[in-house]
Structures are given as structure tokens and as C-alpha cells.
Design goal:
Layout lengths: L20 E3 L10 E6 L10 H14 L7 E5 L3 H13 L2 E6 L5 H9 L3 E4 L10 H14 L3 E2 L8 H18 L3 E7 L4 H13 L4 E7 L34 E5 L1 H15 L5 H15 L6 E6 L13 H6 L8 H10 L7 H4 L7 H4 L3 H4 L1 H5 L4
Parallel strand pairs: 2-10, 3-4, 3-6, 4-5, 7-8, 7-10, 8-9
Antiparallel strand pairs: 1-2
Helix pairs in contact: 1-2, 1-5, 5-6, 7-8, 8-10
The chain binds pyridoxal-5'-phosphate.
Pfam families: PALP
InterPro entries: Cys_Synth/Cystath_Beta-Synth (IPR050214), TrpB-like_PALP (IPR001926), TrpB-like_PALP_sf (IPR036052)
Cofactor: pyridoxal 5'-phosphate
Length: 376
């Protein structure tokens, strides 16, 4: 037997991306558009955040901002921190995740599994969330720790650039000319910003739909507490710097997001996270209003295993006064009643805080042009 010639196999970083897109079989009716889901949980760290994490780390290695034995410091209670912890372990970097009390036991365990150090911030900021206090502390640590690097996901434009180059390019190819609309949730604005820019350059007829959670103020409105993880911010992020690229935006309730995430598992066999539920509710509404022969695409941003003790636990849902109901009919009824928060986000939705990066002493604010032109 002859052995094949030796080849260099990919490393972990190279396994990011090229995630599958599948069509749903049961949630839409025959006269409606096809609903297709890009399974970002297929990334090695289990979420779409592997894309900006790998892109930003590689860029920092190339520019010398991150050197062998260096320390990565980031504000994240979720998937971005997990992605950095994973790549940090693979490359020998120390990783410090600045988190808040909302960190779930599962995410803490994942960060620890990759050897990340965890610092918990317990002071709420002026919006009642922890984002600003977390970012400020991460920036302070960055100044104190020699050889440290701040990916700075909320202010670093390489975040949306990663999605423009990879997620959007893949999705447009996979979904084909039938694509009528793309639905994305928003927190740092990385994937909505990158996908919106790419779609409007390459396929301007495709509608771009943004989804925030009720209580978050990415698109303005009154802040209040919410449970949906992964979605929301108390300002419009710079990665979403051109709201004219977004055709309409929705605010989805916790109830909608949790219900849809469970319904996706029960009716389609896709175990994804709660932010996917938020996006799916809106995507289903769009598909119900779009004729057969067209497609509506939505991202399943992470794997559902992370939510087995929350979204997929009936006791937890009852304790948080959320419904355990998860039928296709219930989800369709809810989607049918959804109305957009805005159909002209550029006019209605700007909640930019131009001084914020500087106020929080963001390292990206200190050298904005270094990254800002890349890929634009
Ligand atoms: C599961 C999940 N969904 C959605 C988002 C929002 O993505 P972005 O930060 O690109 O706006 C995140 C961000 O962390 C996430 O972890």
C-alpha cells in the first residue's frame, strides 16, 4: 500500500469559518419563503465569535501588538471571551476575561477549561448594565500589565471586518440569488455591521434586518433589565457605523427569544442559543411575508449546549416567569404579530456616544486610523 504524500494539516485558527447553511423543514408554510440557518456553532469554539477573535489575534501578531508569551485582556461574559481563551491556550497566551455577575456557570466553566483568568466586576454603569465598568477595568489592566493586548471588541473595527470578509462572503455564496433578507442580532455590532456592509455592496436588493432585545438601547429607547444573553448594548456600537445599511430593526422580548430557541430545537432539531431565538422570531416573520422561491437567512450564533441549565430547563424558565411553551404554531402566531421598531434606522435609531471610547480609555480610540481603514 502506498501512503499519501505528507501535507501540512490546518491548525485550530484555520478551522474557523466555512460553517454550513441548512434549510428549515417545518416552521414555514409552502407558500412562504424558505428559512435558512447558518450554523455558527460549527466553529471550533462553538460560536460566531471565533471569527473576530481569530482575525483580531492574527492582526495583533502581525503588527507586533501581541508578542509570544503576551497577555490578552478582554471584557466579555460570553462567547468572545471563550474564543479568546481557546486561541490563547492554543498559542500560549495568558487570557484575562473581565466579566460581570451575569456570567453563567457554564461560561465560567468553559473559560476555566481553557485556563483563562476571570475577574468579576460588580459595579453597574449608568445604564444599569456592566459593559462600561467592565471595559474601563480591562483598559486599566491593559495599562498596568506589560506585554498585554486589548482586542477591544466593542470599539475595534476589525470585529466587523472579520464578518465582512468571512461570514458575509460565505453566506452570500451559500444562500444564492434567492436570498431576499438576512437577519442578525446585535451587541458589539460586529456581525450585523460587517454583514450589512458586504450585502449592500454585493447584493443591495437583499434586505438587512437587525434585532435587538427589549430593554437594550442599541437602537435607542428606554433601558430596562433583560435576560437574553449575547444581545444588547446601551449605545450604538461603532462597528455598526452606518445605519443606512440596515433596512429595518426589531426589538424582541425575552419571552420571544427563549420560546423561539426552544421551538427551533423541538421542531427542527437545531440546538442553538437564545440570541438565535431572538433572530429566528424576526426571520420567521420576514419569511411569512416573503413569497415562496425566495430565502430568508438567519445566523444560529452559538451552540445550545451552553443553555441546557437555562433556556432548556423548565424550572429555570418558570423561576424567571418565562413560558415553557414551544410549539411551531405558538412561534408562528407570535412572529405574525411582530412589528418593526424602525423601518428607517438611519433616521430613527442613532444612539452613538462618540466620546465613549475615549472616556473609557479604549486603546482603539487612541490609534483609530490604525485599524479603521482596513477592508473598508
Ligand atoms: C450568542 C451570541 N449572539 C449574538 C451576539 C452578538 O454579536 P455581535 O457582537 O457581533 O453584535 C453575540 C456576541 O457576543 C453572541 O455571543
Amino acid at each position: 500500500m502506498r501512503l499519501a504524500r505528507s501535507t501540512t494539516l490546518p491548525e485550530l485558527f484555520d478551522a474557523v469559518g466555512d460553517t454550513p447553511v441548512v434549510r428549515l423543514r417545518n416552521l414555514t408554510a409552502a407558500h412562504e419563503a424558505e428559512l435558512v440557518v447558518k450554523l455558527e456553532g460549527a466553529n471550533p469554539g462553538g460560536s460566531l465569535k471565533d471569527r473576530p477573535a481569530s482575525h483580531i489575534i492574527r492582526h495583533a501578531e502581525r503588527t507586533g501588538a501581541l508578542r509570544p508569551g503576551g497577555t490578552i485582556i478582554e471584557s466579555s461574559s460570553g462567547n468572545f471571551g471563550i474564543a479568546l481563551a481557546m486561541f490563547g491556550a492554543s498559542r500560549g497566551y495568558r487570557v484575562i476575561a473581565v466579566v460581570d455577575p451575569k456570567l453563567t456557570a457554564t461560561n465560567r466553566a468553559l473559560l476555566r477549561a481553557f485556563g483563562a483568568e476571570i475577574i468579576v466586576v460588580d459595579e453597574q454603569d449608568d445604564s444599569g448594565s456592566y459593559h462600561k465598568t467592565r471595559i474601563f477595568l480591562a483598559n486599566q489592566l491593559h495599562r498596568q500589565i506589560a506585554g498585554s493586548f486589548r482586542p477591544d471588541q466593542c470599539f475595534n473595527p476589525l470585529n466587523s471586518e472579520a464578518h465582512l470578509r468571512s461570514t458575509a462572503a460565505e453566506l452570500l455564496d451559500q444562500a444564492g440569488p434567492e436570498l431576499a433578507a438576512v437577519v442578525c442580532t446585535v451587541s458589539t455590532g460586529g456581525h450585523l455591521g460587517g454583514i450589512a456592509r458586504s450585502v449592500k455592496q454585493r447584493a443591495p436588493h437583499v434586505r438587512v434586518i437587525g434585532v435587538d432585545v427589549d430593554g437594550s438601547t442599541v437602537f435607542g429607547g428606554r433601558p430596562h433589565a433583560y435576560l437574553t444573553p449575547g444581545v444588547g448594548l446601551s449605545w450604538t456600537p461603532v462597528n455598526l457605523d452606518d445605519l443606512s445599511l440596515v433596512d429595518e430593526v426589531y426589538k424582541v422580548t425575552d419571552e420571544d427569544a427563549y420560546r423561539a430557541c426552544r421551538t427551533l430545537a423541538r421542531t427542527e432539531g437545531i440546538l442553538a442559543g437564545v440570541s438565535t431565538g431572538a433572530a429566528l422570531t424576526v426571520a420567521l416573520a420576514a419569511a411569512m411575508r416573503t413569497p415562496a422561491g425566495r430565502r430568508v437567512a438567519v445566523l444560529a450564533s452559538d451552540r445550545g449546549e451552553r443553555y441546557l441549565n437555562t433556556a432548556f430547563d423548565d424550572e429555570w424558565l418558570r423561576a424567571n416567569t418565562l413560558t415553557t411553551e414551544c410549539t411551531a404554531a405558538g412561534l408562528r402566531a407570535r412572529a405574525g404579530r411582530l412589528t418593526p421598531y424602525s423601518t428607517d434606522p438611519a433616521a430613527d435609531c442613532g444612539n452613538y456616544l462618540p466620546q465613549l471610547a475615549e472616556q473609557l480609555d479604549s486603546p482603539t480610540a487612541r490609534q483609530p486610523r490604525a485599524n479603521a481603514e482596513v477592508g473598508r
